[in-house]
Amino acid sequence: MKSFTGQALRWEWRDGVIELTLDRAPANEIGSRMLDELENFVEAAKQLACETAACIIASAQKSGFCAGADLRELYHRSAALDPALRNEGIRAELYLGNPKNMGNQLKYADRRNSPCVIIQGSDEKARAEVQIKDLIEGAKAAAAIASNQEWRETRPAQFSCAESEIVAKVREVLARHDVKWG
Predict the structure, then answer these.
(1) What is the rounded distance in angstroms from the CA atom of residue 72 to the CA atom of residue 10?
(2) Which of 42, 61, 93, 155 has the fewest C-beta atoms under 10 angstroms from its C-beta?
(3) What's the rounded Cα separation, in Å, for the pair 158 and 133?
């Protein structure tokens, strides 16, 4: 494939040059559609790499090049998880900081003494799943793990579950640590 026109971007390879044009009103925010199309572009560009001398990236929007993450989409996607917990009497908070910095989000949860966090990236959303990270168990495990690499490989105290199981799985984490929130 030497050209593509999607809902959020388009690209064309011609005479050794790939021209990628971001085209999502109003400001080329990177939401799930743009991200999917960018991932497809990267795969196609790999196939054309030996024939390509340059890649030009431009914006079709007059408002600017790219606003970054689509915070409205992230908020609406995440906000749907929060009421399910609150309706069951489980305190929940939606973090609206920089979505690109997971470390800051986890530090914030630690400062709030949160027993667990729910993480849902685009891959999890596509599978209707979430990751639940047990911060209490994770802190205990961290003391026994020698290296950062071992930590990343074992992912202690983190597990996946279906969106429909969030309330039950969070209740299990809270019960495991005798956390009584209401």
Answers:
(1) 23
(2) 42
(3) 4
List the structure tokens of 116. 């667990």
| Spatial distance between the Cα atoms of 33 and 30, rounded to a whole number of angstroms | 8
Q: What is the CATH number of the domain that holds 46?
A: 3.30.300
**Tally: H helices and E strands in the chain:** 8, 7
- Domain of residue 11 covers 3-59
171, 174, 176, 179: CA torsion to nearest 10: -140
Give the tens place of pLDDT for each residue, 118-154.
988 778 888 999 999 999 988 888 777 777 666 666 6
Q: Are residues 85 and 171 in the same domain?
A: yes
Q: Which residues of the chain have pLDDT under 70?
A: 75, 77-79, 96-100, 148-156, 181-182
The beta strand positions in 2-105, using DSSP E, are 3-5, 9-14, 17-22, 54-59
Do 75 and 55 have their domain in common? no
Strands 158-162 and 116-119: unpaired
Place of tokens 């961290």: 142
Report the pLDDT value the prediction gives residue 99, as an integer from 0 to 100: 62
**115 and 82 share a domain?**
yes
Q: Which of 39, 19, 35 is nearest to 68 (CA)?
A: 35
Work out how many domains the chain is built from and give that number: 2
State residue 156's pLDDT score: 63
